[in-house]
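Lab manual, section 2.4: Encoding a predicted structure.

Procedure: take the sequence of the chain (124 residues), apply the prediction step described in section 2.3, and record the output as structure tokens. A sample record is shown.
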Amino acid sequence: MQFLKILFWCLLAFVAAVFTIGNWTTVQIKLWGGLIAEVNLPLLLLVTFLVGLLPTMVYYQTIRWRLRNRLATVERTVNDLRSAIAPAPTPAPAPSEPPPVLAMGTESAIFPASAAPIVPPGVA
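Recorded output:
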């Protein structure tokens, strides 16, 4: 990809050089007070291009800067709200004594004998 970028810029520079050589003529520009400036055409085109490009680039960079600042502010607000809403993790209480081990055939509090047996579907 880097090669294609370099190739593109070299091609653009070549086209600009051919244009400059082909149009190396002097142009008269009438200024205020009867002044006349003689400028080469490629230089005049470059200055005109930059006069149009630079204010646009400054405006674009300003808009990007503002949007980045707004986005950073919103992200900070969202992170603050998330941290405020999320409850602080509470540590699990340590058991004071181990659960009792029941012998086979004894009734437990977890599974009382009066409860109906669980039968899987399809078995009658």
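Check your result against the sample. The chain has a mean pLDDT of 84.
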